[in-house]
Every structure is written in structure tokens, then in C-alpha cells.
Amino acid sequence: MRSAYRIALMPGDGIGPEVIREAVKIGEAVLESIGIRVFFEEFPNGAEHYLRTGETLSEETLEKLKGFDAIFFGAVGDPRIKPGILEKGILLKLRSSLDLYVNLRPVKLLNGVESPLKGFGPGDIDFVVIRENTEDFYVDMGGRVDASCSRAFEFTVNTGGARGSKYRVEVDSSSGEAFQIGVISRKGAERIIKFSFEYAIKRGMRRITFVDKANVLTEAYGLWREIAEKIGEEYKNIVESEFMYVDAAALHMVLNPKRFKVIVAPNMFGDILTDLGAAIQGGLGFAPSGNINPDGTSMFEPVHGSAPDKAGKNIANPIASILTFSLMLEHLWSRYNDEHLLEASRIIEKAVENVLASGKFKTVDMGGNTKTNEMGDAILAEAKRLVHSGR
Ligand code: ATP
Predict the structure, then answer these.
(1) Is residue 200 domain-resident?
(2) Which of 150, 252, 280, 310, by CA, is between 20 and 30 Å from 117?
(3) Ligand 1 geometric centre to CA of 307 (Å)
């Protein structure tokens, strides 16, 4: 157990600072009221910083961030800056430098939130998606070949799983083509699958659904499935494993989401399924996420981006970032076994649930006119009430 925790704040751009402010206001008050000491330090990285200094994320800042227990991130992106510069220079750099190989995405429909899925209420949609965050088709290996040209491509892959593996591809195309290569390494698959079992056990979850497309992409996803089956054997008395093709998983997420507890997916399928998850839980305003390295500094961010159309108007929904703060505390609990952190996480989540269930506060994305800070104030007041009433 630690006597104090250190959190780096990186609010970033657009609605980032507005929603992060609300989450920190609530998080800080709850942590303080139950006696947990947390030091926050804010980092200016984002569009303004880039325009002023030309810097996205320096090596010095990166090193400094490694000394924190977690990073609480808002969003990056700005209409004045070419798309990709901030995303690659900050977000992707953090993910790769800190080796954040787990993307954790809870999908929970809360009372008072409308899902586009008719007939489902709270309790019917409540699962987590664990997405592998470094490999698969996102290793950035591919090329284009002009018509009638023969070329050879050589790639060095540098993922968490296959450091320095070399691939050589010969292409002879008469009509022109483009290709992209997906990599599942044994080490990369093993570490996310092991993480998933440990995650499920710690939280008393008894079934994991492993997603793939091993019937068509037999090599890459065949290996993924083989590894999941093998590791699953070790855990079979505690956690049941099931295997599902990604198309079936998408169908069940819409028709029968209640059947899922933990879904584990390779990078690309995870990317797609988690967006479907955000949609069925009521939209981007409610979707939290964690980018985790179980042995290092992890980064937590609301799924939504900088939403420039809503920035500076005090109308963004802060709930995704408030739930992200709660998720961060839950992760720190599992890392440091400090029950107070779990208590704080649950108080924040319960306060969000109670405020939404009251039906009195709805931000614009929910069809109401509650302001960002008013939603934050309502959740803060409810959290304080929960702390004082002993819940
Ligand atoms: P970026 O380029 O940073 O990804 P974006 O606007 O393209 O920004 P998002 O920020 O994810 O992508 O937003 C997509 C849509 O959802 C926008 O219309 C935005 O206003 C809306 N949206 C996203 N987050 C919120 C939120 N927290 N509250 C209300 N609306 C939101």
C-alpha cells in the first residue's frame, strides 16, 4: 500500500480541459474525504503548446511521466493543426513508449441513459472489452505497388511481442495493389491473454469470450486462438473460456449483450467492437477507457476526442471523463491492493449513476441543457452525500 499517489494531468485540447476539470474536482474531493493523498501535476501538451513551441511530447516529459502512478488524459486534436500530428506525437507516442498494451473499455448502460438498442435496460449491458493495443494490422507494415512493377519490401516490426522481427515481402503486380500485414506474436498474445484472466479473477468474473476470425485468417488468428486455448487450460477451474468469430460477437452485442462479461480481442477487431460498445452504452459522452501497462505507468482517457464543435461552450458531457477517473482508481486498486482506492472508485461511479437515474440532469448530447460544470456539481454533491451517509 502506498501512502500517497501521483497523477499526471494532461487535459489537452478542445473539450478536454472542460471535462477533465469536472472529473478532477470530483475525484480530488472523494479521495480527500476518505483520507487518500494524491498529488496532481498538470502538463501543457496539446495544440497550444505545439503552436507555441513546436513540441508535441519531449523525451524529457516522457521520462518524467514514467515517475507517476497514472496519467489522466483529456483529448488532443485542433482544427489549426494537420490531423495526425498531435495524435501521433502525443497519444500514440505515449501508448508505444509506455508499452500500454492493454486497452480496457468498460461498456455499461447506466440507468437514465438511453441506448439505441430497444428493450435493454441497466444490467442488460454490462461488460468489459479488453483490446490488444500494439499488434495485429496496426503494426504499420504495408506498401503500394504500381502497375507492372515488381518490388520487394522489407519490414522490421517492433511491437511489444516481436521486437525486431524482420519480414520480407515480394510483390509482383500487373495491375497495381496495396497490401497490409497483420502480426500476432506469441509474446504479444500471451501477455494480453494472461492479463485478461488475471483481470477476470480479481473481479470475480467467471467467463471470457475470446474473439477472432480464425476460420479465415487462419495463421494470425489461429495462433491467437491456440494461445488463448492453452492459457485457458491453466485457468479452466476458475474462469471459463469461449471462442467466437468477430462477426458473431458483433451480432450478439446487439441482440444479446447480456451474455458477455469479458470480451478479449486482437487490436483491429477490438477497435471496431469497442466503438459498437460505446454506441450501445449511450454514446461517446459515457465511454471511459484505460491504456494499461500492468507493470508501469498507465494512461486513462475518455474515448471521445476533442469535439471542437462543442469546445469552449461549457456544454460537453463530463461523464465519460468522470467514469474514466473512477476506472483509473479501480486500476490503481488492483495494482497496489489499496481498498480505499476501490471505495473511492465505487463512490464516484455510484454518484454518476444516482445523478443520471434522477433524470434531473441531461447534457446536450442527452437532449437536455445541463451545462458541463452543472453536471459536475450535481455529481460532486451526490458523491459527498454518499461519503457522509456511509453509502
Ligand atoms: P477529434 O478530432 O479530436 O477526434 P471529433 O469531433 O472528430 O474530434 P469526437 O471528439 O470523438 O471526434 O466527437 C464526435 C462527435 O461526438 C462530435 O459531434 C462531438 O461533439 C460529440 N461528442 C464527443 N464527445 C462528447 C461529449 N463529451 N459531450 C458531448 N458531445 C460529445
Answers:
(1) yes
(2) 310
(3) 4
